[in-house]
Amino acid sequence: MTIEPMGRAEREIAHSRKISSRNTEKLWGWGTPAGQLRAKRRVELIAESARLGVGVRALEIGCGTGLFTEMFAGTGARIIAVDISRELIEKAQSRGLPTNQVTFLEKRFEDCDVDGPFDAIIGSSVLHHLDMNAAPAKIYGLLKPGGRMSFAEPNMLNPQIMMQKNIPSLKMRMGDSPDESAFTRWQLRDLLRNAGFVNVNILPYDWLHPATPISFIKLLAKTGQILEKIPIMREFSGSLHICCSRPKKTYFPFDGVHQDTAIEKK
Q1: In what order do the strands lie in the sheet with 78-83?
Q2: Quick one: which of 68, 154, 176, 210 has the most CB atoms within 10 Å?
Q3: Could you tell me the CA-to-CA distances from 196 to 77, 112, 120, 148 in Å, in that order?
Q4: Which domains does the chain have, with CATH numbers?
Q5: In angstroms, rounded to a whole number, what is the distance separating the alpha carbons of residues 122 and 50?
Q6: Other Cβ atoms within 10 Å of 7 Cβ, number
Q7: 43 CB contacts (<8 Å, ≥6 apart)?
Q8: Residues 6 or more apart from 230 whose CB is under 8 A from it?
Q9: pLDDT tens digits for range 101-135
């Protein structure tokens, strides 16, 4: 009998099952004092650019253990949070977030049949786990006209990220899944523009490493803020903040093909 090789989704599920018994926040770098500071800043960037708040309906892709979901929920937004891993979803549900505000679903995003449209679609370190030939169009279709997409991703130009995503032994040690990679901001910009998004803004940021000792956090955080403003140096930051939107207006040209305008009214 021939055993069919696992596809990408099956490998992601198997990987999540493998790491779910470990301290995932620590494994992913969010459990240290510096990691917690990074997570707080990341949530602020994503929430602000997505305009999360009371009355906003948001879809979070790749919610994992719900660490970021809990912080996003603090804005008052109603959130549907999806993840491919049953084990990670169970961890997220154990946080006891209000069910009238937050719904967790075990779903592969590319096959996700959640009811849109959404005001915002958000996520942290998840796009590089997805099939990016299909995901941008899926996100676009689930957003309402004028809806915003806001994510944070590892930056491939960062030396550590470049090694971590391309050296299999290091990738395994750092808890990465076999298929995950990272992006340059120009690569992401083109993918999003080709999917129809406008106002695409991708900002390199974050020089604070999760392993930074407490006594050095304040100094390195301030140094990082300076480096983020230097044109060449900022390209090597650890993370990318991605924000863009679906156009507000649509029109139907004479050839009958549906298109969105490339200009969004402010």
Answers
A1: 102-106, 78-83, 57-61, 118-124, 143-154, 239-245, 198-205
A2: 68
A3: 26, 20, 16, 12
A4: 15-249 (3.40.50.150)
A5: 7
A6: 10
A7: 68, 71, 72, 124
A8: none
A9: 999 999 888 777 788 899 999 999 999 999 898 89
| Strands (E) located in the chain | 57-61, 78-83, 102-106, 118-124, 143-154, 198-205, 239-245, 250-251, 259-260
Non-local CB neighbours of 162 within 8 Å, separated by 6+ positions = 156, 182
Rounded percentage of the chain residues whose pLDDT exceeds 90: 69
pLDDT tens for 151-170 read 999 999 999 999 988 888 88
Read off φ and ψ for residue 200, nearest 5 degrees: -75, 120
Calpha distance 162→125 (Å, rounded) = 15
pTM: 0.89
| Torsion sign (Cα): 85, 90, 96, 98 | positive
How large is the greatest C-alpha to C-alpha distance in the chain, in angstroms?
Answer: 64
**Cα gap 88→96, rounded to integer Å:** 14
Nearest-angstrom CA–CA distance, 125 and 182: 9
